[in-house]
Amino acid sequence: MILELADIRIKPGENAAFEKAIAQGVETVIREAKGFEGYKVNRSIESPDRYLLQIFWTTLEDHTVGFRQSEAFGRWRAIVGPFFAGPPHVEHFELVCKSA
Amino acid sequence: MILELADIRIKPGENAAFEKAIAQGVETVIREAKGFEGYKVNRSIESPDRYLLQIFWTTLEDHTVGFRQSEAFGRWRAIVGPFFAGPPHVEHFELVCKSA
């Protein structure tokens, strides 16, 4: 399993609307993608305009090829993109270890 | 529950030793701290010297006061600090939503 981490900054003051939009975008668009295994959204305490979107994919290509190159990616960005203060930083991670 | 995210860059080529050290440091030092609820370590695929350490705490103060101001913090840093390429960026997050 692969973790996609999108580090997002939104326009100030739009937290409530963004939080509704990102949940809706994941639940209605990304959830349907092949290899989607789950997600989590966190808001920073020190920087309330910063969000982390974690998406768990079966393989790296399920995200970078399967989802990114599908028409669904455009639908997703139409939902959340208007809130972005700039392009999100996206990086992928492997699990090293975790608590039992 | 609060998420502490430590964004860590290590010196190149020390991945195996660092991964052993960070697991040992969490399991032997941080696990004993009041309010510790779990952890996860991820390694970046695009930037293999970059690691994310996620620690789940009951409250923000369990980390910022209880752990950070205890002698245990020094023991933790003695285990993992030698691998750091620079000071880690540490930020705290609240959960907004996640998959069921």
Give a verbal description of the structure:
Two copies of one chain form a homodimer. By secondary structure, chain A is α+β, with helices and mostly antiparallel strands. The first copy, chain A, has one domain (2-93): Alpha-Beta Plaits, CATH 3.30.70.100. Chain A is built from three helices and four strands, in the order E-H-E-E-H-H-E. The first copy, chain A, has helices at 15-28, 60-67, 71-80, and strands at 2-9, 36-44, 50-57, 89-98. A four-stranded antiparallel beta sheet of chain A has the order 2-3-1-4. In chain A, strand 2 and strand 3 (50-57) form a beta hairpin. In chain A, helix 1 runs antiparallel to helix 3 (71-80). The radius of gyration of chain A is 13 Å and the shape is globular. The mean pLDDT of chain A is 97. The interface between A and B is medium-sized, with 31 and 31 residues. Strand 4 (89-98) of chain A pairs antiparallel with strand 2 (36-44) of chain B.
